[in-house]
């Protein structure tokens, strides 16, 4: 759903600082993408963002057969704060995980925290790939920031070490939570969502969560949702509540 | 998020009618799945549903090296009406389409209608694959019905031929729609969602929709959503509104 009124310029995330007249060298994968997938011409416009300096218009400069650099022209829009929910979830298989991260970025998450539960089957996750996916989704959806990806951590460490003032809203697949929208309407803007693994949380994990003042159980409806569906549903509902709050 | 209290029995959709003591022959793909993926033993329990006779417990009977049949025992739960939203959408590439259909089924759609718009890139769709995906998702998420998959149709034919009393709620990527939740709260239970292609609707299509009394434009938020994200977001919000309406 690309909007008609956006100038359709490819957006790329870079790590360098951005200022007028600066030249940046594209990474090998960016150069490949621009030259061999998009087949951009020397001098084509491109938009760059780095999470802190806003979005900049630049000019693509191609050199040799494979390289590519960007000559920065002017700032296209200023950096905006992009607050959003934190997402804590039990990882799933790689392909569905890629998709999940993409959707989470589009739905505005600020931080992604993979959580190890007793029934999580995935033992290791590829954080580099997770991050690359988050970058690509941020480029595509017009965000000015890329969510922070945290290290894979045990649920007990996450919950017992909860230092933030954020409410931790978790999907209770036993149906004993409050309907999600009901809870969301009472939540402060800063919220974190925790969605369990395909096999559900274990009783001990639910007990751990129920014992915390900052944790709130929600119910996501009558059907058995895959965990990635539950994540997307929670984030979509939350985004819907936020849209509803902002003046139209 | 499999619930603990469900007896974790594999569910399969069949087309035959279901009654006690009847024996059904598994399809080749069901037999392969049971014998070579799940490695079920002769006599294992299984649950069957066909969209009209409720859900039945059966016993798997293995014969020879590859075949499989089901001996029906008793009805496990009666057939329930599963009303839900209709989904109309401009198809996307196959892998993301598979995922989209799966999510749509989990989020309760009753009917899936692929719609051809001016900017839809996908010219043909594999309805058999679409249906297989819908069946698999229905089996997994505990539904008693599989959504109807309609033929790929031009948007003008769909909109001009709109015969149902359903409200047609469409995602307006120009931001001129009402916030989704706002609209949803006013909607009757019977609703249809229309989400456009990656490039957005063309002006003529928006004009067509705006001219219809039964159509209502919604806004799904500030970011540029991929069309599959927009579909999931609309369905998740709708499901959230329905959950919120039902007594807790």
Task: Report what the structure shows.
Two copies of one chain form a homodimer. The first copy, chain A, contains seven helices and 13 strands. The first copy, chain A, has 248 residues and is an alpha/beta fold. Chain A has two domains: 11-77, Ribosomal Protein L25, Chain P, CATH 2.40.240.20; 86-245, Alpha/beta knot (3-Layer(aba) Sandwich). In chain A, strands 6, 7, 8, 9, 10, 11, 12 and 13 form an eight-stranded parallel beta sheet that branches. In chain A, strand 7, helix 3 and strand 8 (148-149) form a beta-alpha-beta unit. Chain A is elongated, with a radius of gyration of 20 Å. The first copy, chain A, starts with 10 loop residues before the first strand and ends with a helix. The model of chain A is unreliable at 1-6 (pLDDT under 50). At the A-B interface, helix 2, strand 11, helix 5 and helix 7 of A face helix 2, strand 11, helix 5 and helix 7 of B.
């Amino acid at each position: 759903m690309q909007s008609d009124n956006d100038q359709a310029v490819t957006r790329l995330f870079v790590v360098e600082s951005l200022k007028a007249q600066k030249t940046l060298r594209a990474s090998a994968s960016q150069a490949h993408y621009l030259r061999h997938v998009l087949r951009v011409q020397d001098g084509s416009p491109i938009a760059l963002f780095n999470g802190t300096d806003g979005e900049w218009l630049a000019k693509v400069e191609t050199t040799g057969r494979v390289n590519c650099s960007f000559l920065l022209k002017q700032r296209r829009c200023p950096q905006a704060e992009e607050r959003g929910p934190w997402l804590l979830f039990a990882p799933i298989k790689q392909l569905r995980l890629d998709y999940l991260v993409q959707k989470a970025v589009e739905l505005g998450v600020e931080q992604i925290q993979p959580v190890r539960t007793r029934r999580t089957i995935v033992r290791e996750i590829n954080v580099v790939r997770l991050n690359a996916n988050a970058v690509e989704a941020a480029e595509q959806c017009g965000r000015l920031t890329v969510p922070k990806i945290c290290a894979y951590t045990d649920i007990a460490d996450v919950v017992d070490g909860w230092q933030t003032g954020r409410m931790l809203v978790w999907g209770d697949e036993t149906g004993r939570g409050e309907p999600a929208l009901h809870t969301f309407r009472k939540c402060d803007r800063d919220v974190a969502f925790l969605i369990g693994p395909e096999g559900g949380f274990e009783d001990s994990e639910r007990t751990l969560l129920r014992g915390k003042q900052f944790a709130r159980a929600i119910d996501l409806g009558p059907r058995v949702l895959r965990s990635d569906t539950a994540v997307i549903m929670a984030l979509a509902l939350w985004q819907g509540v936020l849209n509803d709050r902002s003046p139209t």
